[in-house]
Amino acid sequence: MRAADEVTEEAAADVATHESGERSGRWRAVDTWIAVGFVAFATLVLSQLWIDPNGRVLDGNDDDHGIFLFMLAHAERVVFDGAAPFFSDRFNVPVGVNMMANTSILALAIPLAPVTHFLGGGVTVALLVTGGLAGTAFAWYWVLSRHLVNSRLAAWIGGAWCGFGPTMISHANGHVNFVSNFVLPFIVWQVLRLREPGRIVRGGVILGLLIVLQVFINEEALLFTAMTMGLIAVLYAAMARPQARLVWKHFSAGIGVAALTSGVLLAYPLWYQFFAPGNYHGQPFEPTAYVTDVASLGWFSRQALAGNAALTRHLSVSATEDNTFFGPIGLVMIIVAIVMLWKSVPLRATALAGLFLLVMSFGPQVRIFGYDTGIPLPFGLISHIPVIDLVSVTRFAMVPAAVAGVLLAFAADRVPAPKKKIFWIGMVLALVPLIPKPLPVVQGDPMPPFLTEGTWKRYVAEGKTLVTVPLPDVTTGRTGQRWATLNNLDYPTPRGYFMGPADPPYDDTGSWQAPHRYASELLWSVREYGYLPVVDRERFLADLDYWRAGVVVLIPGSRNEAMLKSVLVEVLGEPQSVGGVEIWPIPSNG
Asked: Keyword Transferase on this protein (predicted)?
């Protein structure tokens, strides 16, 4: 009789194991299809860029597209030429660029250096933005589905919102770093797991390593995440004191291990960022310049299916900073989710933390429909604190945007049966208008044979630079910067679009360009305003000498090209036509 019972139990166990295996297999298939779907959708969003990634430029922010081409070209030189990872001597000659003080995305750019080397930086940009959107969506889906919610559909909603919501699509117009948020969900989960006994060392070390990885992707997003998790911890402790007393010791110890691990590994890179040459303090704009408009909460972003760029631009600082824009029904559903989940202390703390960061994103005073009301807000009290003063204020709204996705996932997972129908109708009405349109692109100026055939090498000796006119600068020298970076910085160039001190050593405020010089100011004025000034030839030649110019190249089709040429002719004489461009070789003084 006992033998028969044992056989029956073994058979039941085999059936249970078989059923469990079938369920696991089905869920793996679901996960695979969700991942494929996210990649396919991200590719659709970037479809216009993928047609010609090295020839086209993202139209929403072609300047930032250019700066990330620079980051990728620098990483290519690190891998293939042994260049220093934290410093570039190929831009802003002769001073160079502190790459740790810029968003150098080394954790992404270095592994993809072979792609940049063999296929071009434009391909790598398209790959990173596509992978960033899809990867962020799937990372949130994975963490939510494995650890936080029971419903795969609810996890999919959270992942899709966090990966393809208005905030992320907006930053996909040029911010490679801000769409690559796939490490953040795992940082969040590892912080939450520190509450568990026995995870002080292992959990702390894992968290510390994830922090190090995120630093080399995007420090600003890490700062936002740290602020949010700190707020959630404080709010949770205040609202659930008995539970907090049970976990605070090993939680704090785990945070200490994470801080020690990341601190040791990041000591030199962070020292280089904040104290090595090329460091800077603060941003080249006031906090009031880039803030979140309150009215944007219930409006549509310019890339949303229901969006209208002409209207949206009045509520947003740029095409890459539509950090809210949840839509009217979307905003209602977020509020509904908060109300539904309010009794849960952890989720209430999460919602309050998101609300706090949202208020911070409004800046020092309330702005609504583009009008500064003068009503003061808390950010004015902390706007000049070091590190905070390096943040673009409106980007604090990226936190409530992600929090909204998490809360919507929990609400979808916990919605009571009697209210499911109306809830899902609301979700459809909220999400469909937010479906993103493919990102717009423009055709970049083609590189001339002078560059593609390597003719430039005859004119740029070792230690010399190739100077394009207009000079590589933010907003005015996109083509010169793009040409240099698509050549993987094979030739060094002066100036460029990057972050550095405005006028060292007198002014170390952050600037988007190199310090002004006579020749750079003169050429900028001629290009912008189209008039011929009196040229101080000696000062102009002195600047060319400072930049170690080997050859000057006039970019065809530039704004006020004829007047720019007149200035160069006055200083350097008549040009030579070589490889599709007009050039002025600079005789060596040596």
From this structure: yes
Identify any residues that bridge with 554 across adjacent strands, giving them in sequence order: 469, 582
Question: Strand locations in 290-433, DSSP E?
Answer: 365-368, 371-376
Three-class SS of residue 168? helix
Per-residue b/e over 152-190, b at no fewer than 16 CB within 10 Å? bebbbbbbbbbbbbbbbbbbbbbbbbbbbbbbbbbbbbb
Report the pLDDT value the prediction gives residue 13, as an integer from 0 to 100. 45
Summarize pLDDT for 473-524 with one digit per residue, the tens. 988 889 999 999 999 999 999 999 999 999 998 999 999 999 999 999 999 9
CB 185 within 8 Å of CB 140 = yes
CA 46 to chain centroid, in Å, comes to 16
Backbone angles phi, psi at 9, to 5 degrees: -65, -40
DSSP state of 127: H
74-122 per-position pLDDT tens digit: 999 999 999 999 999 999 999 999 999 999 999 999 999 999 999 999 9
- How many CA within 13 A on the CB side of residue 383? 23
Tokens 């369920």 sit on residue:
23
Q: What are 187's two structure tokens? A: 């940082």
Q: Domain residues of the chain, as ranges?
A: 56-434, 449-585
Q: 576 forms bridges with which residues in the sheet?
A: 583
Q: Which amino acid is at 8?
A: T
**Residues forming beta bridges with residue 442, ordered by sequence position:** 57
Q: Rounded to the nearest 5°, which phi and psi values hold at 500?
A: -160, 180
pLDDT of residue 398: 96
Would you say 123 and 115 are in contact if contact means Cβ atoms under 8 Å apart? yes
Q: Which amino acid is at 232?
A: I
Asked if the model's pLDDT at residue 390 lies above 80, the reply is no
The secondary structure element, H or E, covering residue 226 is: helix 219-239
Could you tell me how many residues make up the chain? Answer: 590
Supply the pTM of this predicted model.
0.93
Structure tokens at 387: 């590190």
Residue 528 contacts residue 546 (beta carbons within 8 Å): no
Q: What gap in Å lies between CA 166 and CA 360, rounded to an integer?
A: 19
The pLDDT-based confidence of 310 (bands split at 50, 70, 90) is: confident
**Averaged pLDDT score across all residues of the chain:** 93
> To 5 degrees, how large is the angle CA 506–CA 285–CA 109?
90
Bridge partner list, 367: 372
Q: Is the pLDDT of residue 9 over 60?
A: no
What CA–CA distances, in Å, run from 563 to 516, 524, 573?
21, 11, 14
Distance CA 580, CA 448 (A): 6
